[in-house]
Design goal:
Distance between the termini: 40 Å
Order of helices and strands: EHEHEHEHEHEEEEHEHHEE
Shape: globular
CATH superfamily of the largest domain: Response regulator
Strand content: 15-25%
Radius of gyration: 17 Å
Length: 220
Protein backbone atom coordinates (compact mmCIF):
# COMPACT_ATOMS: atom_id res chain seq x y z
CA UNK A 1 0.00 0.00 0.00
CA UNK A 2 1.29 3.44 -0.93
CA UNK A 3 1.51 6.01 1.86
CA UNK A 4 0.59 9.61 1.05
CA UNK A 5 1.61 12.39 3.43
CA UNK A 6 -0.86 15.27 3.39
CA UNK A 7 0.02 18.66 4.88
CA UNK A 8 -3.03 20.92 4.92
CA UNK A 9 -3.92 23.42 7.64
CA UNK A 10 -7.62 23.68 6.74
CA UNK A 11 -9.07 20.99 9.01
CA UNK A 12 -12.17 20.22 6.94
CA UNK A 13 -10.24 20.08 3.67
CA UNK A 14 -7.60 17.91 5.31
CA UNK A 15 -10.26 15.42 6.40
CA UNK A 16 -11.99 15.51 3.01
CA UNK A 17 -8.82 14.86 0.99
CA UNK A 18 -7.77 12.15 3.39
CA UNK A 19 -11.14 10.42 2.95
CA UNK A 20 -10.88 10.56 -0.86
CA UNK A 21 -7.34 9.16 -0.85
CA UNK A 22 -8.21 6.37 1.56
CA UNK A 23 -11.23 5.47 -0.55
CA UNK A 24 -8.83 5.15 -3.49
CA UNK A 25 -6.81 2.63 -1.47
CA UNK A 26 -3.98 4.78 -0.16
CA UNK A 27 -2.66 4.94 3.38
CA UNK A 28 -2.64 8.58 4.49
CA UNK A 29 -0.61 10.38 7.14
CA UNK A 30 -1.87 13.93 7.60
CA UNK A 31 -0.63 17.04 9.39
CA UNK A 32 -2.31 20.38 9.93
CA UNK A 33 0.80 22.22 11.13
CA UNK A 34 3.96 22.76 9.14
CA UNK A 35 6.17 22.25 12.19
CA UNK A 36 4.73 18.77 12.74
CA UNK A 37 5.34 17.86 9.11
CA UNK A 38 8.90 19.16 8.98
CA UNK A 39 9.73 17.25 12.17
CA UNK A 40 8.60 14.04 10.47
CA UNK A 41 10.09 14.38 6.99
CA UNK A 42 11.80 11.01 7.37
CA UNK A 43 8.47 9.19 7.70
CA UNK A 44 8.11 6.30 5.19
CA UNK A 45 6.18 7.80 2.29
CA UNK A 46 5.62 7.50 -1.45
CA UNK A 47 4.28 11.00 -2.12
CA UNK A 48 3.79 14.29 -0.25
CA UNK A 49 0.97 16.78 -0.80
CA UNK A 50 2.05 20.17 0.56
CA UNK A 51 -0.03 23.29 1.05
CA UNK A 52 2.33 26.21 0.46
CA UNK A 53 0.83 28.66 2.95
CA UNK A 54 0.33 27.01 6.34
CA UNK A 55 -0.95 28.44 9.61
CA UNK A 56 2.40 28.53 11.41
CA UNK A 57 5.89 29.76 10.57
CA UNK A 58 6.74 26.72 8.44
CA UNK A 59 5.71 26.84 4.76
CA UNK A 60 5.43 24.14 2.15
CA UNK A 61 8.63 25.51 0.65
CA UNK A 62 10.46 24.84 3.93
CA UNK A 63 9.13 21.29 4.03
CA UNK A 64 10.11 20.36 0.48
CA UNK A 65 13.66 21.59 1.09
CA UNK A 66 13.94 19.18 4.03
CA UNK A 67 12.37 16.37 2.00
CA UNK A 68 14.87 16.91 -0.81
CA UNK A 69 17.78 16.67 1.65
CA UNK A 70 16.60 13.17 2.56
CA UNK A 71 15.18 11.94 -0.73
CA UNK A 72 15.79 13.99 -3.91
CA UNK A 73 13.40 11.75 -5.86
CA UNK A 74 10.37 11.89 -3.55
CA UNK A 75 7.26 12.92 -5.55
CA UNK A 76 5.68 16.14 -4.24
CA UNK A 77 2.47 17.96 -5.16
CA UNK A 78 2.03 21.58 -4.10
CA UNK A 79 -1.37 23.11 -3.38
CA UNK A 80 -2.04 26.82 -2.91
CA UNK A 81 -4.89 29.30 -2.66
CA UNK A 82 -2.73 31.81 -4.53
CA UNK A 83 -3.00 31.45 -8.30
CA UNK A 84 0.29 33.14 -9.03
CA UNK A 85 2.71 32.11 -11.75
CA UNK A 86 5.65 32.85 -9.44
CA UNK A 87 4.38 30.31 -6.89
CA UNK A 88 4.26 27.64 -9.58
CA UNK A 89 7.74 28.47 -10.85
CA UNK A 90 9.21 28.47 -7.32
CA UNK A 91 7.49 25.16 -6.62
CA UNK A 92 8.94 23.60 -9.75
CA UNK A 93 12.36 25.06 -9.01
CA UNK A 94 12.29 23.35 -5.64
CA UNK A 95 11.50 20.03 -7.32
CA UNK A 96 7.74 19.62 -7.05
CA UNK A 97 6.12 17.27 -9.52
CA UNK A 98 2.79 19.07 -9.78
CA UNK A 99 0.95 22.18 -8.61
CA UNK A 100 -2.78 22.56 -8.06
CA UNK A 101 -4.63 25.77 -7.22
CA UNK A 102 -7.38 26.02 -4.63
CA UNK A 103 -10.26 25.58 -4.79
CA UNK A 104 -9.81 22.26 -6.53
CA UNK A 105 -11.86 19.11 -6.91
CA UNK A 106 -10.73 16.28 -4.60
CA UNK A 107 -11.27 13.94 -7.54
CA UNK A 108 -8.83 15.98 -9.64
CA UNK A 109 -6.21 15.78 -6.89
CA UNK A 110 -6.68 12.01 -6.62
CA UNK A 111 -6.24 11.68 -10.40
CA UNK A 112 -2.99 13.60 -10.21
CA UNK A 113 -1.82 11.44 -7.31
CA UNK A 114 -2.66 8.31 -9.32
CA UNK A 115 -0.72 9.58 -12.34
CA UNK A 116 2.40 10.39 -10.33
CA UNK A 117 2.32 7.12 -8.36
CA UNK A 118 1.97 5.19 -11.59
CA UNK A 119 4.88 6.98 -13.22
CA UNK A 120 7.12 6.81 -10.15
CA UNK A 121 6.51 3.27 -8.92
CA UNK A 122 4.60 1.16 -11.46
CA UNK A 123 6.71 1.79 -14.53
CA UNK A 124 8.22 -1.21 -16.35
CA UNK A 125 10.26 -1.25 -19.54
CA UNK A 126 12.00 -4.63 -19.83
CA UNK A 127 15.33 -3.41 -18.42
CA UNK A 128 16.09 -1.11 -21.34
CA UNK A 129 19.10 1.15 -21.30
CA UNK A 130 19.64 4.05 -23.64
CA UNK A 131 22.94 5.80 -24.29
CA UNK A 132 23.04 9.40 -25.38
CA UNK A 133 26.46 11.00 -25.72
CA UNK A 134 28.04 10.46 -22.27
CA UNK A 135 24.75 9.72 -20.55
CA UNK A 136 23.41 6.28 -19.70
CA UNK A 137 19.66 6.22 -19.09
CA UNK A 138 18.15 3.17 -17.40
CA UNK A 139 14.49 3.21 -18.38
CA UNK A 140 13.61 0.40 -15.98
CA UNK A 141 15.24 1.85 -12.87
CA UNK A 142 14.36 5.39 -14.00
CA UNK A 143 17.92 6.58 -13.49
CA UNK A 144 20.31 8.69 -15.53
CA UNK A 145 24.07 8.73 -15.03
CA UNK A 146 27.00 10.72 -16.38
CA UNK A 147 30.38 9.04 -16.08
CA UNK A 148 28.86 6.60 -13.54
CA UNK A 149 27.56 9.46 -11.38
CA UNK A 150 23.83 9.62 -10.71
CA UNK A 151 21.88 12.64 -11.92
CA UNK A 152 19.08 13.55 -9.51
CA UNK A 153 15.93 13.98 -11.57
CA UNK A 154 12.39 14.54 -10.36
CA UNK A 155 9.60 12.30 -11.63
CA UNK A 156 8.51 14.83 -14.24
CA UNK A 157 12.08 15.53 -15.36
CA UNK A 158 12.69 11.83 -15.95
CA UNK A 159 9.34 11.48 -17.77
CA UNK A 160 10.39 14.28 -20.12
CA UNK A 161 13.82 12.73 -20.61
CA UNK A 162 12.23 9.37 -21.38
CA UNK A 163 9.88 10.94 -23.91
CA UNK A 164 12.76 12.65 -25.70
CA UNK A 165 15.30 9.79 -25.77
CA UNK A 166 12.73 7.28 -27.00
CA UNK A 167 11.53 9.68 -29.70
CA UNK A 168 14.71 11.30 -30.98
CA UNK A 169 14.25 13.86 -33.76
CA UNK A 170 10.48 13.86 -33.26
CA UNK A 171 8.97 17.30 -32.71
CA UNK A 172 6.59 17.73 -29.78
CA UNK A 173 4.25 20.68 -29.35
CA UNK A 174 3.77 22.11 -25.88
CA UNK A 175 0.30 20.54 -25.82
CA UNK A 176 1.84 17.16 -26.72
CA UNK A 177 4.24 17.47 -23.80
CA UNK A 178 1.48 18.55 -21.41
CA UNK A 179 -0.60 15.51 -22.36
CA UNK A 180 2.33 13.08 -22.24
CA UNK A 181 3.86 14.29 -18.99
CA UNK A 182 1.04 15.81 -16.94
CA UNK A 183 -1.85 13.83 -18.46
CA UNK A 184 -5.18 14.81 -19.99
CA UNK A 185 -6.50 16.01 -16.63
CA UNK A 186 -3.97 18.83 -16.24
CA UNK A 187 -5.45 22.30 -16.07
CA UNK A 188 -2.99 25.17 -16.23
CA UNK A 189 -0.62 27.20 -18.36
CA UNK A 190 1.77 25.57 -20.83
CA UNK A 191 4.59 27.69 -19.37
CA UNK A 192 5.27 24.77 -17.04
CA UNK A 193 6.57 22.93 -20.13
CA UNK A 194 9.20 25.60 -20.79
CA UNK A 195 10.26 25.55 -17.15
CA UNK A 196 10.54 21.74 -17.10
CA UNK A 197 12.65 21.75 -20.27
CA UNK A 198 14.88 24.44 -18.78
CA UNK A 199 15.40 22.39 -15.61
CA UNK A 200 16.27 19.27 -17.61
CA UNK A 201 18.72 21.21 -19.77
CA UNK A 202 20.39 22.57 -16.63
CA UNK A 203 20.84 19.13 -15.09
CA UNK A 204 21.83 17.45 -18.39
CA UNK A 205 23.53 20.13 -20.51
CA UNK A 206 24.73 17.63 -23.13
CA UNK A 207 21.14 17.02 -24.26
CA UNK A 208 20.58 18.70 -27.64
CA UNK A 209 17.01 19.82 -27.03
CA UNK A 210 16.08 22.17 -29.84
CA UNK A 211 13.48 24.86 -29.31
CA UNK A 212 10.93 25.10 -32.11
CA UNK A 213 9.75 28.65 -31.64
CA UNK A 214 6.01 29.03 -31.40
CA UNK A 215 5.55 25.26 -31.30
CA UNK A 216 7.60 23.14 -28.89
CA UNK A 217 10.78 21.04 -28.66
CA UNK A 218 12.68 18.09 -30.10
CA UNK A 219 15.79 16.13 -29.14
CA UNK A 220 18.35 15.65 -31.93
Amino acid sequence: MYNIVLVEDEKDLNSLIRAYLEKEGYSVTSYERGIDAINNVNIPAHLWILDIMLGDDVSGYDIIKKIREINPDMPVIFTSARDKELDKIIGLELGSDDYITKPYSPKELVLRVNNIIRRAYLYSSDNKRVSYKNYVIDLDKRMATLNDKDINLTTLEFDLLYMFVTNKKRSFSRDDILNNIWGDNYFGTDRVVDDLVRRLRKKMPELDINTIYGYGYRLI
